[in-house]
Design brief:
Elements (H helix, E strand, L loop, with lengths): L19 H4 L11 E10 L5 H17 L5 E10 L8 E7 L2 H14 L1 H10 E15 L11 E9 L5 H17 L5 E9 L8 E7 L2 H13 L2 H9 L3 E3 L3 E9 L6
Antiparallel strand pairs: 1-3, 1-4, 2-3, 2-9, 4-6, 5-7, 5-8, 5-9, 6-7
Helix pairs in contact: 2-4, 5-7
């Protein structure tokens, strides 16, 4: 077990708490309602940047309103802590309220969104499009996913002989520990679903924070407040996670994802 479990800051949001109201959103098995999430990995075209993207996002939002696509939230994630292999400019992160909303939104986009898609293509190239299934172990403050402005992700692989039911039980206990320690970080597992095929991980471990100050305070709390010992006690050798990537996010479309 690497440090991602005990240092939430180094584990977009995305993004993702201490109150009893937050835990009311988590289901009996601790995973919450499973939601579809998508990631576009994008690079700006030559001479383009965020200023060029803003009017296209406004055009996209108008398109979504026109077609009454309400069950979808989206963020733009800019890399903050990253390695050399993270050679892209921005991630588009989207989440739908359920599979039906995902399908309806995709249908409208494919059949009606050509003009907006062309506008996006003039600003950025997004060759990678991934679909994931998101399980929530710890909700954001008051369930407000749009308020998550810092997202961290790491890739985790279960060790030989580990069953996910063992991981799930440990994560439920860890989420309770975070709440007892006063952490307001949100906490998810994302499972590969569409668009991958050669991934070398079983799930992504995702933390969400409202800002970088919260990320830092959680880091200090867990690094020097007993989190390391508790993590080792809970997780043992269930899995291994790589170094986390951290992204600063901007909510560009919001909806209540989990009722």
């Amino acid at each position: 077990m690497k440090m991602q479990h005990w240092i939430p800051a180094c584990a977009v949001a995305t993004s993702l708490l201490a109150s009893a109201a937050s835990f009311s959103q988590v289901t009996e098995d601790g995973m919450g309602k499973i939601l579809p999430v998508e990631l576009y990995v994008c690079q700006f075209m030559d001479g383009k940047g965020h200023g060029d993207l803003e009017p296209v996002v406004a055009q996209w939002n108008a398109f979504m309103d026109e077609h009454d696509v309400n069950g979808y939230a989206a963020w733009l994630l800019t890399p903050y802590y990253r390695g050399a292999e993270q050679n892209f400019d921005v991630l588009w992160m989207g989440a739908a309220t359920d599979g039906n909303a995902m399908g309806r939104g995709a249908h409208h986009w494919i059949t009606e969104g050509g003009e907006v898609a062309a506008a996006f293509a003039e600003v950025m190239d997004c060759p990678v499009h991934l679909g994931l299934a998101s399980a929530m172990y710890k909700a954001p403050p008051k369930g407000n996913t749009s308020g998550l402005q810092v997202i961290s992700m790491s890739d985790c692989k279960m060790n030989e002989g580990t069953r996910y039911s063992d991981v799930r039980s440990a994560e439920v206990e860890w989420a309770q520990h975070l709440s007892d320690a006063g952490s307001d970080a949100a906490y998810y597992h994302w499972f590969p679903d569409f668009g991958g095929g050669d991934q070398d991980f079983d799930y992504k471990l995702v933390y969400g924070y409202t800002d970088l100050k919260r990320m830092g305070s959680n880091w200090e709390m867990m690094a020097n407040g007993g989190g390391r010992t508790k993590s080792k006690e809970i997780f043992g050798d269930l899995d291994e996670c790589d170094d986390s990537r951290v992204y600063v996010g901007k909510s560009i479309r919001s909806t209540k994802l989990r009722k």
